[in-house]
Every structure is written in structure tokens, then in C-alpha cells.
Design goal:
This protein is of the alpha/beta class. Helix content is 35%, strand content 28%. The chain folds into 2 domains: 8-223, 3-Layer(aba) Sandwich (Rossmann fold), CATH 3.40.50; 226-281, no CATH class. The strands form 3 sheets. The chain has a 6-stranded mixed beta sheet, with helices on both faces. It has a 4-stranded antiparallel beta sheet with strand order 2-1-4-5. Helix 4 packs across helix 5 (143-155). The chain is globular, with a radius of gyration of 21 Å. Bound molecules: adenosine-5'-diphosphate (ADP). Adenosine-5'-diphosphate binds at residues 19, 22, 24, 42, 44-50.
Length: 287
């Protein structure tokens, strides 16, 4: 397969990955459309990072195939890698170097010519709102700023697909929202985005479609609203025999009518993506 005749930005076909004892991915079939913002959800250990690592060429699948814009990540890694930028979960900037130098090194790795590198770095730092920190050593930046610099670095070679592994982990809610706005802007400017998260509200706010992964198996894929509507938009949480029980209803009125039948404490709330995951697996997404 080559890059001229593709339909999907990302395609996974029967993808499996076995580490020595662990079967981390058990045959994943999935596609992400060009321009989509796709959230890959699941509890810790479900295989999210492994999937991304295969796609960006950091580890090999045991079997199956993976394509980026039609390029096979295993058979054509050079072309496949050019299609994508990757922001890993842990901050891996060089803290002693300046913001400029961190980005510049990355541009050299992609053989970008000096003038183009400089122009692109200035453009991107302006884009992420950190041009005034161009000469700052990374160690002087806040956690949210470092995360934004990592995103700029991943965008330096103008990839068509951006992988974000837990982009807001450990950030406070206000900074998290700043990163969400940046992610949305990048998508609006034409980049396909594949992100992993276990913040359910992040996926609900950002994603066009989500996939739920559980123990290396894809359990459902869909648009957040449609998945929630399939369950019922309103949730009634009750406690019965010291067990928490949740029932779903189309309207708040239906939930209220049902609630009065319960003798114990209850609460009525809007259903969310976490409810989808729990109803399918009995487990929670967040650790
Ligand atoms: P997630 O990103 O959803 O937390 P991972 O993809 O990191 O999940 O891990 C999936 C499974 O594979 C887990 O059981 C994890 O312990 C295992 N795993 C991940 N990386 C390695 C590795 N390098 N060697 C052995 N096992 C691994």
C-alpha cells in the first residue's frame, strides 16, 4: 500500500502485541478518518500506549498491520513516520536547553533546513502562545507550558496526524482547558488527532469519536453523544443493599418518577461516557 490511495488517516487491521507474558493487544480493527479528533479510552494497562507506540514506530506489532495515511508503519516506516507527530505521556524535553534549542534539535532530526526551522519555530511558538519564552531554559517553564512546547515540537515537521498520549495528565483544571483549546485549534487547522486519556470529560469535550479499550480488546467505537443516547441521557444512582446501582432514562422526568420508588438515597445526573464503559465492562475508566 502507498500514500496516494488512502481513505483513512489511521487504519489498524487485526493488530496484536504480545510482550513476554502479557497479551497487550488482542486483534484491534479500527480506522480514523482524515481530520477527525479521535479519543482512545480505557483504564491503565488496557493497551492505549502500546497502540500509539506501534503507530509511531517505537515498537513492532506481533501480528496485523497498521497504516498512517496509507503507509504501512512496518513495511514503510520512513514515510509513515513523516505523517505523524507524537507527544508522549512523560515530559522528555531537555530541561537545561532553551525552548528554541529543544525545537531546533527536533527540526534537525527531520533534516529541515536552518531558515525553515527558525521560521517554523517562531510560527509555532506564536501559535501556542509562548513566543516570549523562546530563549527561556525549559526548566523555568510551568508544567502546562512544557506540555505546549512538546506539542509544538511534535508539529514542527508539519505532520498530518498528531498523537497525544494523555496530554493533560497531572495538570490543573484551568491549564487543562488551555490545552484543550490548543488541541481543538490544531484540529480546526486540518490535523487529524488521536489522543489517549482517562479523563472522561476530556474525551467528551474534544472527541468526534471515541473507542473504548479493555484488556487489549476494543469494546465499542462511536460518537460520544450517540453512545450516551443509546444508554439514556439521564442516570439515576441509587444505593440498594449497600450496593450502588445506576439506571438510565431518556428524560429527567422519567428518572425522577422512578427515583421516588426508591426508599434509600439517590441522585439524578446526566449520563456520561464513563457510564458507557461501566455498563459494558463493569469497570471504571479512571484508575
Ligand atoms: P495503557 O497505555 O492503556 O495504560 P499499555 O499499553 O501501557 O496500557 O500496557 C498494556 C499492557 O502491556 C499492560 O499489561 C502493561 O503492563 C504491558 N506492557 C506495556 N509495555 C510493556 C513492556 N515494555 N514490557 C512488558 N509489558 C508491557
Amino acid at each position: 500500500m502507498n500514500g496516494t490511495n488512502h481513505k483513512h488517516a489511521i487504519e489498524l487491521v487485526n493488530l496484536t502485541k504480545r510482550y513476554k507474558k502479557v497479551e497487550a493487544l488482542k486483534g484491534i480493527n479500527l480506522h480514523v478518518k482524515e481530520g477527525e479528533l479521535f479519543a482512545y479510552l480505557g483504564p491503565n494497562g488496557s493497551g492505549k500506549t502500546t497502540t500509539i507506540k506501534i503507530l509511531v514506530g517505537l515498537t513492532k506489532a506481533t501480528s496485523g498491520r497498521a497504516f498512517l495515511n496509507g503507509y504501512d508503519v512496518d513495511a514503510d516506516p520512513i514515510h509513515a513516520k513523516r505523517q505523524c507527530g507524537y507527544v508522549p505521556q512523560t515530559i522528555n524535553l531537555d530541561h537545561e536547553l532553551t525552548v528554541f534549542h529543544n525545537l531546533d534539535i527536533h527540526g534537525r532530526l527531520f533534516h529541515m533546513e536552518r531558515g525553515k526551522r527558525r521560521d517554523r519555530i517562531i510560527f509555532l511558538l506564536n501559535y501556542i502562545g509562548l513566543l516570549d519564552r523562546i530563549k527561556s531554559p525549559v526548566k523555568e517553564l510551568s508544567g502546562g507550558m512544557k506540555r505546549r512546547v512538546m506539542i509544538a515540537r511534535a508539529l514542527l515537521h508539519e505532520p498530518k496526524i498528531l498523537f497525544l498520549d494523555e496530554p493533560t495528565v497531572g495538570l490543573d483544571p484551568a491549564i487543562r482547558r488551555k490545552i484543550w483549546a490548543l488541541i481543538k485549534k490544531i484540529q480546526m487547522d486540518g490535523t487529524t488527532i488521536f489522543l489517549t486519556t482517562h479523563y472522561i470529560e476530556e474525551a467528551e469535550f474534544l472527541a468526534d469519536r471515541v473507542a473504548f479499550l479493555s484488556e487489549g480488546t476494543l469494546i465499542t467505537v462511536g460518537k460520544p453523544k450517540e453512545l450516551i443516547n443509546s444508554l439514556g441521557q439521564w442516570a439515576l444512582d441509587t444505593v440498594e443493599n449497600e450496593q450502588m446501582k445506576t439506571l438510565y432514562f431518556r428524560t429527567q422526568e422519567e428518572a425522577k418518577k422512578h427515583a421516588v420508588l426508591h426508599p434509600g438515597p439517590f441522585s439524578i445526573r446526566r449520563a456520561n461516557l464513563e457510564d458507557i464503559f461501566i455498563s459494558l465492562t463493569g469497570r471504571k475508566v479512571a484508575p
